[in-house]
Amino acid sequence: MKTAVVVFPGSNCDRDLAVALEGVTGTKPIMVWHRETELPVGLGLIAVPGGFSYGDYLRSGALAARSPIMRAVADKAAGGMPVFGVCNGFQVLTEAGLLPGALMRNAGLDFVCRDVALTVDNSQSAFTSRYAAGETIKVPVAHHDGNYVADQETLDRLEGEGRVAFRYGEEVNGSARRIAGILNDAGNVLGMMPHPERRIEGAHGGTDGRRLFEGLLEIAG
Ligand SMILES: NC(=O)CC[C@H](N)C(=O)O
After folding, report:
1. Tally of CB atoms within 10 A around 196
2. Cα(134)–Cα(119) distance, rounded to whole angstroms?
3. To test the ligand 1 pocket, which listed residue (7, 57, 87) has its Cβ within 8 A of the most ligand atoms?
4. Which of 6, 48, 52 to mutate to test the pocket of ligand 1 (most atoms within 8 A of CB)?
5. I want to staple 89 with a disulfide (CB 3.0 to 4.6 A). Which of 16, 64, 78, 85 is the partner?
6. What is the ipTM, given to two decimal places?
7. Burial class of residue 153 in the structure, from the number of CB atoms within 10 Å of its CB (0-12 exposed, 13-18 middle, 19+ buried)
8. Is 113 a catalytic residue?
9. Known catalytic residue at 34
10. Which residue of 14, 86, 88 sits with most ligand 1 atoms within 8 Å of its CB, as the best mutation to test the pocket?
11. How far is CA 198 from the centre of its chain?
């Protein structure tokens, strides 16, 4: 499967994502600089990595969301291509309007960097099909703006439509309803704060993140 990783000034998890994607797909991802206006053809996944794009100035992800490449990402997402945003990537996707809600400063005002328990709420999406519904997995978080907020109506809609992909099994950052990852209405865009790309091989202390990428591979055929 051909994949692309979008890179912004200040991205710092782009290489983690590239190594994970290459490990799972067997093909090196194409790294796409934010100033590009077009994405390579034939992609099975666009990945938006974690980091501190534009130094988190203004709001995390706000400036990156206005990069030239994000128009192409939005077009591909509208066409049904899987788009995965992790951590800062999740922040970028909410700021770009591809996902609802926003990521605010953690409730404790601290940078949280540790393993957390996540429950898989929806195991039917392209990203979560290799997990069992209700399964608990362990994946690391590393962020200061992971506190997911949205109005009650949006939260109810996300829950009602099965668009909460992952939920924290414990209090982590103050996120509404302990939401850790959400899907767009079509189910082809996932944003999540925890880092599955850092749980790919035994040396990482576990492989719980690997199945997310394997599920996508299965769909791409
Ligand atoms: N690891 C990351 O992507 C960090 C995301 C973001 N800059 C934050 O700290 O909230």
Report:
1. 25
2. 6
3. 87
4. 52
5. 85
6. 0.95
7. exposed
8. no
9. no
10. 88
11. 12
Choosing from 87, 95, 144, 204, which is the catalytic residue?
87
Q: Closest Cα to atom 8, ligand 1: which residue? A: 143
CA distances from 36 to 18, 68, 70, 117, 165 (A): 18, 6, 9, 37, 30
pLDDT-based confidence at residue 218 (cuts at 50, 70, 90):
confident
What count of other Cβ atoms lies within 10 Å of the Cβ of residue 42? 7
Q: How far is the CA of 56 from the centre of ligand 1 (A)?
A: 8
pLDDT at 221: 56
Which one is catalytic: 34, 143, 144, 195?
195
Residue ranges of domains in the chain, CATH in brackets? 3-220 (3.40.50.880)
Cα–Cα distance between 104 and 111 in angstroms, integer? 12
Which residues 6+ apart lie within 8 Å of 187 measured at CB? 125, 126, 163
- Report if pTM > 0.95: yes
- The SS3 call for residue 30 is strand
Residue list, ligand 1 pocket, CB within 6 Å:
13, 50-52, 56, 60, 87-88, 142-146
Q: Could you read off the pLDDT of 12-48 as tens digits, one per residue?
A: 999 999 999 999 999 999 999 999 999 999 999 999 9
